[in-house]
Structure formats: C-alpha cells, structure tokens
C-alpha cells in the first residue's frame, strides 16, 4: 500500500514517465498490442479530464466494436492491470474512474525483481571471483578446508566480498599470507563494525599516519613499509 501511494504521488507530480516504462514492459507482462493501445487511449482520455471513458468512446477511436472494448476492459481488470475507483465530491455525488495504478505497480515490481536478480547474480559472480583471487595470491589451488573457511566468511560471518578482498590485500602487503592472519583481520574489523571500504580506510589510515608513512599503493610489497599487525591486536 505504501508503494502504491508513493507511485501515485510520483505520477501525479509528473516524476515518472509512464509511457516509456509501459512501452518497455507491457510485452513481458503478457499484455497484447491491442490491449496496450486501449490503455494508451485511456491515458489520453484521462489527460483530457475524462476519467471514466465508456466503451463507445473507445470504439469511436479504435477499430474495435463496443463489445470488444468491453471484453478488453474486463480482461485487464481480471488480470489485475486495471481497477475502478469510486469517490464522492462535496455534494455527495458518487464518481467513478478507471485506475491504472495496479498496472504501474506491476511494472515497478517487475523492475525491482529484475534489479534484485541482477544484484544477486553480480554477488554470485563476485563471490566466485574471490576464490580465484585467493588462489592467484597464494600461488596454488585452495584446499577444501580453505574454501570452506572463505565460504564461512561470506555466509556465516556476513562479510562483504569487498571487505574480504581488502583483508587479503592487507595480508599481501604485510607479507603474512595465511587464512589465519586474514581471519584475524576480519575478526577485528567486525568487532569495530567495519562493513565497507570507507570503514576500512577510517580504521587503517590513522595507524599508518601515526608512523609518518603514506598509505602503500596497491601493488607495493616492500618490506620497508610499516604494516598493522592484526595478530597483535589487543582486546
């Protein structure tokens, strides 16, 4: 309900270009071309102030009979794309109008679903790449136990891929390339509520600044650079 009210407000304020969303999505919703044309005529009527156009009005504009128009309207209502709303004016007179809000809500739900699926696929790809990155840095294939440890960081501990990647980078720069060391880094970051690269910068940068050294570049591996020893972190 809250989503519908927000969408209604956006439409009334002209912040959503419904025609573009509709043209891009109506086919995937199973709306036929003739049904889509009727919907566009309905929008045209309503933009002219005719909120409840009757079948003869549609038939006059389209190559359809009044019965065909009625069948399409009923079909759209059964499919949950169209609704009839009632309201009273100041004199208590009851008015009806067609509402396409259910259709716009379906379109927004479809967009949200596609975005969610794309994000989920992207996360899966990133999670798969993190294993490859560990193997590249370790210079060997990971053991089943090592793979399980990384999976636990993702699934049980809830660490984001970018945070695990940053912890691996810390281990590489410190020349302490072991899952135990990386696990300790992640443990300390989680204790400090570190959840993003920005959080990591705030926690690591002050330490490096305190020793008067600049932040090492990503590719730097010189043993002369001072690093935060996460295994010596005190409770």
Explain the overall architecture.
The protein has 235 residues and is mainly alpha-helical. The chain is built from 10 helices and 2 strands. A hairpin with a 5-residue loop joins strand 1 and strand 2 (94-99). Helix 4 crosses helix 5, helix 6 (101-138) runs parallel beside helix 8 (161-173) and helix 8 (161-173) crosses helix 9 (179-191).
Secondary-structure map:
Elements: H1 2-12, H2 18-25, H3 33-47, H4 55-61, H5 66-78, E1 83-88, E2 94-99, H6 101-138, H7 144-155, H8 161-173, H9 179-191, H10 197-210
Antiparallel strand pairs: 1-2
Which terms summarize this structure?
mainly alpha, elongated, 235 residues, two-stranded antiparallel ribbon, single chain, 10 helices
Helix content: 55-70%
Number of helices: 10
**Principal-axis shape:** elongated
| H/E series | HHHHHEEHHHHH
- Rg is 29 Å
The largest sheet, given as strand count, sense and whether it forms a barrel, is: 2 strands, antiparallel
- Compute the average pLDDT: 81
Summed up, what is this model?
The protein is mainly alpha-helical and 235 residues long.
